[in-house]
Each structure stands twice: as structure tokens, then as C-alpha cells.
DNA sequence: ATCCTCCCCTAC
DNA sequence: TAAGGTAGGGGAGGAT
């Protein structure tokens, strides 16, 4: 799959130049008539759809879009009309239509693709006494039904429909459900909402266009239509997009031939008068006889339209809130989880993990099976097949719609009229119009008005990917998965098998099995086979024999080489290098000097078709992370903390899912650039600075709670206004397999902090005793008991022990307390390794950060600056009490110093002091013992010195 | 010289 | 409205 569709498209354009021995099963090149299509189709109302002979129909439209209507169409239309009448009549006679004729007097024209389909809507009209027009007539049609329309269609509707209501199909559905004709007003198409009230404002006071009843009806039924409204507005729920496909199948004829063009039988009038007349007619259905409209109605209309818009944004739980309330980080507590469920990039990014689980034995690589392909013995030539599905996302969703094969189709999240969704994948007919992955739907529709938009179907992608790999594994043992739709096959060892024939067989099987086409490249190494596939696309295959490599590469644009993205391309262009041939002129030294050792060598090799990689080199996972750079908008630190918490849970789950734990953690932040305005992309991150901080902890972890503490600490380093954050990511690296860490959970920092160090082991006092112990009375308590001591009234923060932390050995539900903040030596705390600081900070409920504001990046942290200003004692000099007010409340005895031994990031034992009380506690004990031992050693040294010196003197 | 951190670039 | 992720590789520069 190519996320950069321009790449594929450009290769199509180059096809004739760069194809060698190409076997293409798709002889008709879609790019041939590209220019022609662009010049003709875009200005018409989807003429391409039904046009068997595009040029003729287009020319007639170009000549006069709506007046030059042949007698054939008049005849055909009449015939269809009669046919509908006959059907309606027969169904009523046969008793099929026993329903209330709620649509009597209504005549709909369904324009474009709708859910439900035009045919289904026709069925409803038939059943409930309405009419369905196959072709648009301003005199017969009363309502235009559509889900969305491209801008040019909107213009045409505005010009020629005489102000007919343009409403969404849910109006029909909801009316049927309510068994009465509902007001169409709330169901107006959003694209026309801002326009229609203006018309209504003009007419309503005079003609009672929208009655009070209609308004009341709308208000009362507000909630009833909301649910379906949203579904209609965009797409079926994610995960259920096949419903969409099923529905479309029933109306394929409509899509192809009837629904697309607005055909007007009569000469254009297009005057304000006709507009007025039509709307007055409309009011017959909407006002239902009530003409008693108050003067303020006019002003209410605008509000109504706004209200209607809000209702479209119904959230999934049916709450009367804007969808936007739930589509960004601040308002949706499940934002992170939902986001990943719906992210196509997340799907692509995590596919490999799923593949590894699905094909555990096949995805481990073949490290020992052979060596470098270039080192193979004898004259055996390496043979690599690269196989890649064509426009995967689109192919999969339209695989059951052969009628759409040659129609422009794209996949994206939403076909909302606003058109601010991003095209993810476009098929080749769409690419011919300039539709590319990454452009907005509205731009895509401007380029290609009749573009069909499908939603994602991640389940189907997964399913097809599995079929794809089953076929590959069936034919070849050495398969290296690149992505869900792309793989390398080393077929060198398949003696007697012609690689080209094999590729053909595999492609054929893929098509038979999945209904999707794949392209293949065959060559002597991975680089060349991959390049060959680009040439072969779509639905073809290409073999590059060794002799042709130089010719092939000579004119190949450098951007085609893997590893050369837009940045490297620009850099090379500045050096007048545009093709591989030009790249070859530069020496390896020059390239390495300009681009670095590795990159320089890669450029030198690739420009000569040299690639030393071999199929099957699967590396161990080096990092696991989660990142969200969309919809991130925080209003306060609580939002950001909640978000970080969700992110930690996500990363924790991913680590656990992979059976690894991380020792190094990197927090990435996207910060809005100073002058960056709100991005064009809805909820996008826009122009950002990318910041990151990382820390390494002594013990690897996958514990969400620990991650949260670490992340909190990392987050503190940024010292950033949360309102400026546009994206956050957390990545774990220095991964260690859990297999090798069985039982190591007991060594986690959290556990360690809560446990009694072996060297401090003392007879434990029961929890009840601790709980009952008076505040400040810590006599004879072990280290964890000190940490767990009840001092809540002093510190104001308690640390709730996680019930899941069974390894801690603490009683579940026990609420431990910790030494009060005022008892800490901040000079020491401040200089703790970040991970320990993070842990302590969490234990103190995040208050430590506030108490010791600091930034790792700033050598002169706030707290240390404060300390210096106040002339407090340094760590070496003794304890520092940060809060003078609290200081006065504490007795001298409580100011005794204890040393807590803790593991530093280098696994060394480092002392840091915590103020605890009273003096007789194990820390003091330990300290005194240490002091005595140290003194003893010093004494011995002195004694020895005293003893040795005189000897020397003598 | 080597390692580490903080980036950036790239591919899918 | 919409869902701009994930992971690997590598370069620059600083610390050791």
C-alpha cells in the first residue's frame, strides 16, 4: 500500500518509458485519456457516470446543460413515470401497500449516492403514497433527496431547482418511522443550510412557509431523528461499513445511470418568481394548513437552522451535545482509545504486530537460512519478487462492486459536505483526476465531482491481508511482510519455477481469492524488485533483467528510490541531481560528506542498483509507543494529566501485548508554533515544534501506574502551557522480554519502595498497628512502614495502593501515607534521578512537582534559585526546610535526618535524606551504624598513618 | 572513541 | 467536522 499516492501515480505516468518485459493484465491504460477527462467531465454534473459514450453526452451538456434535452429522454422519462404509476397501482391492488399515504403529494428526486439507496427510497415512496422521479423536473419534483453534493451540483441546484428543499434521506426514514410526514426543515442538507434560511427568511413571513407547528414538531422530534441523522450525514459506524457496501449494491444502477445528473425537461426559467412560487407550493406539505406564524418567526429561523446543525452533531450516546465535544481530547474521556480505533495510520502502523501474532512461525525471519544474497555460492542468481496490492484500501471496499471498478473511488473517514476529511486512498480512475491520498474531500470533489467516497473497513483490510499472506506463504517459504498489502518473496531456491510465471500465478490467485488486484516486480534484489513493481502498477508485473538495470536506473527520478523522501529529494535537486544517472556522477565520499556515512553509502549503492539486504531479515522490536497528534486540545493541566494517563495505559497494554517491558521512555510533545493559527484541518495539529525528553529507569516496566509517574515527571520537564499542546506521544525503548524477567516484578521500583530492604529488615509491625499509630510516632518502624505511615493530616496527600499490585505484599485497600512534604530535604529531592523524583512525586500526589518546580533543561531551577536566595543550607550542610511556616510547627526532634538508600539510575546506591520523625527509626539506626563503621575505618586509617609515617621518617 | 539524547527523515 | 500512527535508521552535538 502506498500512502503517497502521487508516487504510484507518477510511476503510472512513466510506465511506457520504464517497462521491461512487462506483462500487464490491464492493457487499457487509464492515464491515456487523463487530459481529456479533466477537461470535460469536471464541469458537468457527473456525466461520466452513465455515459457509455462520454464524449457525446458531455458535449451536449457543455453546449447547454439543461435545455438541450432530447426527445429520447422525454420519452424515457414518461415511460419510467408510467412504470412507477403502474407499480404503485399494482401494489395497492394487491394489498401490499396498506400503509398510510404519508407522502401523498410528495415527489422526490434522489440525487447522488444516498443511504438508504435511491431504490430503497423509491420503495418507501411507492409504499407510502409518494412519488419518485428518476429525472429532475422542477414541476414534478417537490423535494430533492441527497446525502451530499459537490459544489458544482449545489450551484446547479440553487440555480435551477427553484429553491426546492434539498433534504437528507433520513427525512423519509424518520417520517416512515413516525408514520406521518415530518417537517423537512431540520433535514436540510448542511451545504444549503446557510443558504436556505435566507430564502426562508424572505418568504416565511409572507407565505407561512414554516409553521409554528412545524417548528414545534421539529423541537419535539428533535431527539427522534438525531440518531439516524448522524448516520446519514457521514457513514455507518466504523466496523460496520459493509452495511454501506450492501446498500450500495442494491442501487448500483442508480449510481451508474440515473442518480447523477439533474435533467430538466423545460427551458430554464431561473427567476426569483419561479423560486417563490415553488416554495409556496412546498409550504403545502410543510405548513400543514397552519398559517398563523408569529412575526418573530423570521428571526427564529436562523436559530432553528443553527439548532439543526447542532443536532447533526449528536454524540454517540445520544446526548444533546455537539459531536465536537466528544471528538477532542478535552471532552471525551475515551478519546485516546476511540481515536486509535478509528485511525487508519494506527491500523497501518500496528499491522505488523498483528501479522506476527497471526503468523507466529512464519514471521520470525530466516536469519540462519542463508546469508547475504550477494554471497550466494556458484552462479545462482538471486530472484526476488516484490508484490503489492493496488490501491489497497479502495480495492478492498469496492471488491464486491465490479460496476465501480472503472469509476473514481476514494476512501476516507467522512463524506460530510464540509469535506474536511482527508482522502486516504484513491483508485486509479480517481488519480487520473488528480485525487491523491492526503487531500481534503472537498478538494477531491472539486477535481472529480462524481467521486464515490467509501468509508474505511478495517476488518475487511485485515481479512484480505490474511488471504494475501496465506497465498504468499503457500507459494514461498521466504516471505518478508512489509505491510498489510506488500511483501518480498525470495524465490531463488524455487528451482524449476520461473519467477515471472510464479508471480503471475500468485497475482491470479490473489485476485480470485480477494477480488483485488496486485502488481509484482521481479528482479535480482529487493531494491530493484520494488522499483519494478512501481513500474508494473496497476495490475501488472515487471521483470528487470540484470542487463537492463543500468538503462532502467539511468533515467529513474531519484524520488523513486526507497529512502529518498521529499527532504532528500530537495537537497539533491539543489545539487542538480534529479535522476539516478545524475546521482551516480557524485562520488561516495562526496555523498557521505553531504549526507552522512550511512545515507551517503545508501545513495551511492541505490543509484547503481546495489542492495545488500536480504529477504527475511526480521529484527526484534526495538521500541513500542503510542502517539496522538489529532484532536489534542487541553484547557488545563487536569486535561493533560488525564490524557497522559490514558496514553500510559495504552502504552502499557501494548507492551504487555508484546510481552516486553521498557527501560527507557520518551515523551514527545507537539507544541503549536508561536504564530501558527488554527490549522485548516479540523482538529489538526498544524505547524508545531517537536519536543522530546526521555529518561531511563533502572528496572524495566510495563506497569501503567509506573508509566504514569514517569510520564508525569517527563511532562514536567517541558514546562509548557498545556493550551499550546497539539500532540503527545509516549515511546518505550530499551525493551526487555518479560520471558527473561520472570519474577522480576518483585524488583520493580514501586515494589521496592514499598518493601523492606533486606539490609533494613526488622520485625514487621502489623498494618493495624501502623494504622493506629499516632501521627508522628514512627518509632521502630521499617522503611516501608515509614513510607506507609499515617501522616495524612500533615502532608495532605495519601497514596492509594493499587489493588492489582499484589506483588507489593501490602494489604489491599490499605491507604498508605508518607512523610509530610515539609519533612523532605528538597535540596536532595531536587537532585534525585528523574525517575525517582517521578515516583516520589506520584507518591506525594503530584505535589512534589509544585513544591520543587524545576526543569531538567534549566540548570538553574526555580527551587534551587529559591534555596540560594534564601541562603538555606546545602545538602552537605544539613537539612533544608522549604516552608518556613511549617518549619516553625515542627519540633526539633522531628528535624532529625534519616537516610534512605535507594537505587539510582546507574544501579548505584545513593543516599538521600528524608526528614522523618522521631529520631529512633531504622534509617537513623542504619545511618548511625554506617557512621560508626565509617568512623572506625577512618580511625584505622589514621592509626595506620600515624604508625607508618614515623617509620618513613625514620 | 563511544555513548547518549534529541531530533529529523522515511516507509507503510 | 474527524480520527495527521508507528517504528526504524541515522545525524548532530554534547558528555564521558
From TrEMBL:
Entry keyword Calcium: no
UmuC domain residues: 384-565
InterPro entries reported for this sequence: BRCT_dom (IPR001357), BRCT_dom_sf (IPR036420), DNA/RNA_pol_sf (IPR043502), DNA_pol_Y-fam_lit_finger_sf (IPR036775), DNA_pol_Y-fam_little_finger (IPR017961), IMS_HHH_1 (IPR053848), Rev_trsase/Diguanyl_cyclase (IPR043128), UmuC (IPR001126)
Transmembrane segments: 923-945
Pfam families on file: BRCT (PF00533), IMS (PF00817), IMS_C (PF11799), IMS_HHH_1 (PF21999)
Composition bias, Low complexity: 19-32, 52-63
CDD domains linked to this entry: BRCT_Rev1, PolY_Rev1
Cited PROSITE patterns: BRCT (PS50172), UMUC (PS50173)
Residue span(s) of domain BRCT: 98-189
Keywords (A to Z) from UniProt: DNA synthesis, Membrane, Transmembrane, Transmembrane helix
Chain intervals for the UniProt region annotation (Disordered): 1-63
Family: Belongs to the DNA polymerase type-Y family.
Protein name stated in the entry: DNA repair protein REV1 isoform X2
Organism: Ziziphus jujuba (Chinese jujube)
Gene from which the chain derives: LOC107426998
Amino acid at each position: 500500500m502506498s500512502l503517497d499516492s502521487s508516487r504510484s501515480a507518477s510511476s503510472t505516468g512513466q510506465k511506457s518509458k520504464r517497462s521491461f518485459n512487462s506483462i500487464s493484465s490491464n492493457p487499457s491504460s487509464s492515464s491515456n485519456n487523463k487530459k481529456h477527462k479533466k477537461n470535460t467531465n469536471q464541469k458537468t454534473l457527473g456525466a461520466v457516470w452513465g455515459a457509455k459514450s462520454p464524449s457525446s453526452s458531455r458535449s451536449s451538456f457543455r453546449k447547454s446543460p439543461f435545455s438541450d434535452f432530447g426527445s429520447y429522454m422525454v420519452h424515457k422519462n414518461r415511460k419510467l413515470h408510467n412504470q412507477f404509476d403502474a407499480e404503485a397501482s399494482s401494489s395497492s391492488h394487491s394489498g401490499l401497500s396498506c400503509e398510510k399515504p404519508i407522502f401523498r403529494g410528495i415527489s422526490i428526486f434522489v440525487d447522488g449516492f444516498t443511504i438508504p439507496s435511491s431504490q430503497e427510497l423509491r420503495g418507501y415512496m411507492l409504499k407510502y403514497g409518494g412519488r419518485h422521479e428518476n429525472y429532475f423536473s422542477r414541476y414534478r419534483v417537490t423535494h430533492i433527496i441527497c446525502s451530499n453534493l459537490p459544489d458544482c451540483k449545489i450551484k446547479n441546484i440553487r440555480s435551477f431547482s427553484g429553491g426546492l428543499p434539498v433534504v437528507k434521506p433520513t427525512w423519509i426514514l424518520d417520517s416512515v418511522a413516525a408514520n406521518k410526514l415530518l417537517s423537512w426543515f431540520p433535514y436540510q442538507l448542511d451545504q444549503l443550510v446557510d443558504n436556505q434560511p435566507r430564502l426562508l427568511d424572505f418568504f416565511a413571513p409572507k407565505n407561512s412557509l414554516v409553521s409554528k407547528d412545524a417548528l414545534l414538531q421539529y423541537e419535539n422530534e428533535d431527539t427522534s431523528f438525531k440518531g439516524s441523522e448522524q448516520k446519514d450525514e457521514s457513514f455507518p459506524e466504523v466496523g460496520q461499513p459493509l452495511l454501506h457496501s450492501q446498500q450500495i449494491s442494491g442501487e448500483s444502477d442508480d449510481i451508474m445511470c440515473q442518480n447523477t445528473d439533474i435533467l430538466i425537461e423545460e427551458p430554464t426559467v431561473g427567476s426569483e418568481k419561479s423560486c417563490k412560487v415553488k416554495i409556496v407550493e412546498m409550504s403545502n406539505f410543510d405548513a400543514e394548513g397552519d398559517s398563523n406564524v408569529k412575526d418573530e418567526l423570521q428571526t427564529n429561523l436562523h436559530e432553528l437552522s443553527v439548532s439543526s446543525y447542532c443536532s447533526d452533531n449528536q454524540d454517540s450516546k445520544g446526548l444533546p451535545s455537539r459531536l465536537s465535544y466528544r471528538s477532542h481530547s478535552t471532552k471525551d474521556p475515551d478519546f485516546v482509545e476511540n481515536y486509535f480505533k478509528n485511525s487508519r495510520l494506527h491500523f497501518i502502523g500496528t499491522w505488523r504486530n498483528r501479522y506476527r501474532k497471526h503468523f507466529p512461525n512464519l514471521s520470525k525471519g530466516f536469519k540462519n537460512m542463508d546469508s547475504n544474497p550477494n554471497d550466494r555460492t556458484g552462479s545462482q542468481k538471486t530472484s526476488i519478487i516484490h508484490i503489492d496490492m493496488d490501491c489497497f484500501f479502495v480495492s478492498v471496499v469496492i471488491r464486491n462492486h465490479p460496476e465501480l471498478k472503472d469509476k473514481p473511488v476514494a476512501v476516507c473517514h467522512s463524506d460530510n459536505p464540509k469535506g474536511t476529511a482527508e482522502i486516504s486512498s484513491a483508485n486509479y480512475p480517481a488519480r487520473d483526476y488528480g485525487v491523491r491520498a492526503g487531500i481534503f474531500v472537498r478538494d477531491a470533489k472539486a477535481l472529480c465531482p462524481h467521486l464515490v467516497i467509501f468509508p474505511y473497513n478495517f476488518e475487511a483490510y485485515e481479512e484480505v491481508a490474511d488471504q494475501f499472506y496465506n497465498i504468499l506463504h503457500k507459494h514461498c517459504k521466504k516471505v518478508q511482510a512489509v505491510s498489510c498489502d506488500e511483501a518480498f518473496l525470495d524465490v531463488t531456491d524455487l528451482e524449476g519455477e520461473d519467477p515471472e510465471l510464479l508471480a503471475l500465478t500468485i497475482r491470479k490467485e490473489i485476485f480470485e481469492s480477494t477480488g483485488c488486484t496486485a502488481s509484482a516486480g521481479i528482479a535480482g534484489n529487493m531494491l530493484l524488485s520494488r522499483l519494478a513493481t512501481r513500474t508494473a502498477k496497476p495490475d501488472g508485473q515487471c521483470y528487470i533483467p540484470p542487463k537492463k538495470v543500468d538503462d532502467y536506473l539511468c533515467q529513474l527520478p531519484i524520488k523513486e528510490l526507497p529512502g529518498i523522501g521529499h527532504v532528500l529529494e530537495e537537497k539533491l535537486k539543489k545539487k542538480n541531481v534529479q535522476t539516478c544517472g545524475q546521482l551516480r556522477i557524485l562520488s561516495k565520499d562526496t555523498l557521505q560528506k553531504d549526507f552522512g556515512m550511512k545515507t551517503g553509502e545508501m545513495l551511492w549503492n541505490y543509484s547503481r542498483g546495489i542492495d545488500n539486504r536480504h529477504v527475511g531479515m526480521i529484527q526484534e522490536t526495538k521500541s513500542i509507543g503510542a502517539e496522538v497528534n489529532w484532536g489534542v486540545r487541553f484547557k488545563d493541566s487536569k486535561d493533560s494529566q488525564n490524557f497522559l494517563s490514558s496514553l500510559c495505559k495504552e502504552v502499557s497494554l501494548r507492551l504487555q501485548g508484546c510481552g516486553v517491558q521498557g527501560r527507557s521512555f520518551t515523551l514527545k510533545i507537539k507544541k503549536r508554533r508561536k504564530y501558527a493559527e488554527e490549522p485548516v484541518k479540523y482538529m489538526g495539529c498544524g505547524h508545531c515544534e517537536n519536543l522530546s525528553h526521555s529518561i531511563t529507569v533502572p528496572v524495566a516496566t510495563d506497569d501503567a501506574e509506573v508509566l504514569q509517574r514517569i510520564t508525569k515527571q517527563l511532562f514536567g520537564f517541558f514546562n509548557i502551557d498545556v493550551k499550546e499542546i497539539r500532540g503527545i506521544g509516549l515511546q518505550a525503548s530499551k525493551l526487555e522480554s518479560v520471558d527473561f524477567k520472570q519474577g522480576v516484578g518483585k524488583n520493580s521500583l514501586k515494589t521496592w519502595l514499598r518493601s523492606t530492604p533486606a539490609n533494613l529488615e526488622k520485625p514487621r509491625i502489623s498494618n493495624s498497628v501502623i494504622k493506629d499509630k499516632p501521627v508522628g510516632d514512627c518509632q521502630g518502624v521499617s522503611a516501608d512502614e515509614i513510607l506507609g505511615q499515617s501522616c495524612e493530616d500533615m502532608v495532605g496527600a495519601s497514596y492509594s495502593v493499587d489493588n492489582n499490585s499484589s506483588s507489593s505484599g501490602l494489604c489491599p485497600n490499605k491507604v498508605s501515607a508518607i512523610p509530610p512534604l515539609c519533612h523532605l530535604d528538597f535540596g536532595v529531592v531536587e537532585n534525585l534521578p528523574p525517575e525517582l523524583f517521578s515516583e516520589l512525586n506520584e507518591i506525594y500526589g503530584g505535589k512534589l512537582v509544585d513544591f520543587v518546580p524545576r526543569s531538567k533543561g534549566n540548570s538553574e531551577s526555580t527551587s534551587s534559585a529559591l534555596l540560594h536566595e534564601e541562603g538555606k543550607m546545602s545538602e552537605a550542610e544539613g537539612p533544608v526546610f522549604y516552608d518556613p511556616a511549617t518549619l516553625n510547627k515542627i519540633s526539633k526532634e522531628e528535624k532529625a535526618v534519616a537516610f534512605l538508600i535507594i537505587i539510582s539510575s546507574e544501579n548505584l546506591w545513593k543516599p538521600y535524606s528524608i526528614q522523618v520523625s522521631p529520631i529512633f527509626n531504622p534509617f537513623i539506626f542504619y545511618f548511625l551504624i554506617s557512621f560508626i563503621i565509617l568512623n572506625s575505618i577512618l580511625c584505622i586509617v589514621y592509626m595506620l598513618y600515624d604508625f607508618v609515617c614515623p617509620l618513613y621518617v625514620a
